[in-house]
């Protein structure tokens, strides 16, 4: 995939027009390229019987290659993870595995990846730059206050990296050697972006942005939930941030060496009492009122008249499309599919009990490229950030706590659940109605001990995405609100 980073705005606009006007042909050519390259792989050869040999790639693909779930392909992926050659699945060498937020059998899916993914990430960034330039005047005159977080990568038995798609891009040479345009100009040094401790990183992002507040033209993150966390961080820590700015020195608890050294350079040991006073005056005001759709009301409150922009839609499997109308309201956003990034099939939903599946509604076309709106995720009942807890997982967790509950002489009568994002980080809330088998509850102290054990049992039973969030501070402790028949509600 050729880079367009050196193209002028007119040339980038022509690229977008060509892609969307010839979507069908580009998709057909891409499928043919994929099948021709990979016909000899162990996974495809039994379906394709040796290659295309003049046959239509699309008809052969639809007739011979079945629709599968992750679990169908997982045995092949596991073999590569454990050291067998990449060509089991792909002629191009598999360089790493991307861990998804959606889970399968209680663990993140491992998506094989290679250089093509990074090319797609860089390509879509160049097109987003073109679209934003077209719709938002003056944005190129400042910097972006972007709250990037990188995950803690692990490795396969043979040493291939495993981590999130965003982290892989941020740690790659594509990001390190990114173009010198406004779109890639940030208030935070790269050392902060690549920091390992999310609490320290978000604090340093916020501090760097406040110090350079006159240059900030846009604020953003990969996930809306992170912006809400930052707002809460500002609410809790503005006095300390003001002290850093007033003194020109960083707080001692920032121990990540990359963060500490780079932010100290930004501060420069230079006291800024006027800026500190200005921020302190604003933050001293009394009012701090306070998926991604669940965060829109909070963001709307703090953004006032500023536009909320969703630029693109992507996952660990691929980058899908961009928002060519960036100033549309969040609830009205549709993404325009880019046909050169991967081969797409739109399949009517019939239900799937195992996988987390994105549900999309095709809302129209831009030229001849489909536009789609993400309407939800099948089977997901609870989500704070990148965690995706399915109904099935929730029931398994409830069944574990019932073992604790039953042994104490209490019985669960009804339950429901929700998320609470009024505090940061957000957390799961489970509502229970319980009753005593012998109709004799021996005081609230006994009940609290029992329900605390239930909380721990439930958290231990939830999937790896939830546990990752708990360990790294993006999800708060699970809360159980208990209504005891013939008694009052209690929070544990």
Automatic annotation (TrEMBL):
Coiled coil: none annotated. Residues 392-484 form the GH3 C-terminal domain. It holds the Pfam family GH3. This is GH3 C-terminal domain-containing protein. It comes from Eruca vesicaria subsp. sativa (Garden rocket).
């Amino acid at each position: 995939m050729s880079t367009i980073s050196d193209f002028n705005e007119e040339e980038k606009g022509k690229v977008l027009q060509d892609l969307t006007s010839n979507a069908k042909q580009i998709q057909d050519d891409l499928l043919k390229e994929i099948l021709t390259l990979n016909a000899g792989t162990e996974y495809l050869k039994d379906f394709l019987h040796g290659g295309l040999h003049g046959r239509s790639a699309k008809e052969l693909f639809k007739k011979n290659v079945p629709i599968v779930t992750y679990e169908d392909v997982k045995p092949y992926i596991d073999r590569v993870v454990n050291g067998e050659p990449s060509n089991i699945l792909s002629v191009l060498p598999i360089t790493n595995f991307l861990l998804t937020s959606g889970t399968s059998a209680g663990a993140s899916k491992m998506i094989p990846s290679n250089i093509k993914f990074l090319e797609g990430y860089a390509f879509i960034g160049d097109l987003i730059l073109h679209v934003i330039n077209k719709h938002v005047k003056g944005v190129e005159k400042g910097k972006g206050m972007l709250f990037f977080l990188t995950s803690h990568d692990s490795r396969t038995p043979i040493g291939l990296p495993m981590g999130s798609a965003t982290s892989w891009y941020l740690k790659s040479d594509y990001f390190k050697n990114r173009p010198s345009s406004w779109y890639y100009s940030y208030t935070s040094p790269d050392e902060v972006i690549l920091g390992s401790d999310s609490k320290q990183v978000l604090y340093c992002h916020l501090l760097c942005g406040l110090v350079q507040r006159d240059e900030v033209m846009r604020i953003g993150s990969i996930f809306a939930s992170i912006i809400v966390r930052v707002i809460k961080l500002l609410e809790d820590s503005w006095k300390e941030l003001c002290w850093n700015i007033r003194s020109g020195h960083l707080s001692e608890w920032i121990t990540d060496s990359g963060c500490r050294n780079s932010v100290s350079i930004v501060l420069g040991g230079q006291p800024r009492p006027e800026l500190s006073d200005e921020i302190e005056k604003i933050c001293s005001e009394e009012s701090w009122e306070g998926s991604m759709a669940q965060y829109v009301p909070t963001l709307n409150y703090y953004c006032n008249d500023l536009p909320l922009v969703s630029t693109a839609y992507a996952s660990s499997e691929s980058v899908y499309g961009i928002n060519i109308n960036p100033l549309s309201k969040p609830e009205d956003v549709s993404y325009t599919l880019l046909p050169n990034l991967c081969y797409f099939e739109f399949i009517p939903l019939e239900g799937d009990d195992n996988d987390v599946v994105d549900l999309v509604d095709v809302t129209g076309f831009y030229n001849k490229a489909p536009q789609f709106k993400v309407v939800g995720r099948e089977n997901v009942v609870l989500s704070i950030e990148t965690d995706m807890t399915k109904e099935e997982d929730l029931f398994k967790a409830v069944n574990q706590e019932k073992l604790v509950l039953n042994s104490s002489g209490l019985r669960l009568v009804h339950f429901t659940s929700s998320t609470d994002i009024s505090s940061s980080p957000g957390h799961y809330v489970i509502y229970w109605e319980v009753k005593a088998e012998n109709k004799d509850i021996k005081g609230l102290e006994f009940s609290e001990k029992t329900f605390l054990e239930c909380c721990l049992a439930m958290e231990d039973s939830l999937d790896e995405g939830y546990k990752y969030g708990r360990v790294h501070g993006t999800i708060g402790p699970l809360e159980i609100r208990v209504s005891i028949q013939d008694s009052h509600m209690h929070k544990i």
